[in-house]
Specification:
By secondary structure, the chain is mostly loops. It contains no helices and 2 strands. It has a two-stranded antiparallel sheet. It is globular. Bound molecules: zinc ion (3 copies).
Amino acid sequence: MTTCKHCGKAIDDPHTTTCIRDFIEYQDDVTLQRLRYTDDEKEQCAVCHVNPGAFHHRGCYMERCPRCGQRLISCGCLIRGKEWQQPIG
Ligand SMILES: [Zn+2]
Ligand SMILES: [Zn+2]
Ligand SMILES: [Zn+2]
């Protein structure tokens, strides 16, 4: 079982459909609300298994950066926000 350190829920539990709604703090004190997994998708997130329209669990590499729209773990906006880059598992 894999537990998300951010919301405390079991990622591989089918009853866990979303992470928590919160904010991302960037190194220059800009804070933006996290982006949801797009509800255009028909399937759950292949990585962290949340529903379309829900929030990815922390560390999911499918999560988009609300600042630049690229993948949050690799876009480079979060230089000091390293904890967000810890992979699941
Ligand atoms: Zn995900
Ligand atoms: Zn979570
Ligand atoms: Zn970014």
